[in-house]
Amino acid sequence: MKRENVPRIAWGLTGSGHFLRESLEVAGTLPDVDLYLTKAAAEVLNMYGYDMRELRRRFRIFRDNTASAAPVGLFYHGHYHTVVVAPATSNTVAKCVWGISDTLVTNIFAQAGKCRIPSVVFACDTEPEVTTESPSEWVTLYPRRVDLENVDKLKQFENVTVASTLDELRSAVEQRMACLNASSS
Prior knowledge:
Blueprint: E1 8-13, H1 20-28, E2 33-37, H2 39-47, H3 52-58, E3 60-63, E4 80-88, H4 90-98, H5 104-114, E5 119-123, E6 130-133, E7 138-141, H6 145-154, E8 160-163, H7 166-184
Parallel strand pairs: 1-2, 1-4, 2-3, 4-5, 5-8
Antiparallel strand pairs: 6-7
């Protein structure tokens, strides 16, 4: 497989609506972003009113429709400089922590680690009480202790930055872009 001239960002979307719009806005400000969608992400995007055709105008999109997660082969050939998972459900965070790679997004996270590609994870469940936007209203959720513990465990991973707020996501992505710009000058 031929390496691209300019490595890209692999942006994973999971089944969360928590800051979904804002996460996509951040992704939209960046050059060369590919969206990796879990099956749940495809459902959630539809529930929140996103048109896949519109997203394809801005992003290259990979969907979770192969048993072997075939698109992860791109990670072995320098196609990506960064993985961002935003927003990340507690389910995705738990799978990442425990090494379970059974969705396209958990697979790209695992391959990023194996290829030493830095990752940024915007975890949804980071506080004892979270207010979030559902497709029809604002709701308050109470993450379980296990959810909070998994976020803490993920923070210990090498080459992984965990963002707990939208500002932290923006900052982590900006830092990655600054590192890339500094290394290319």
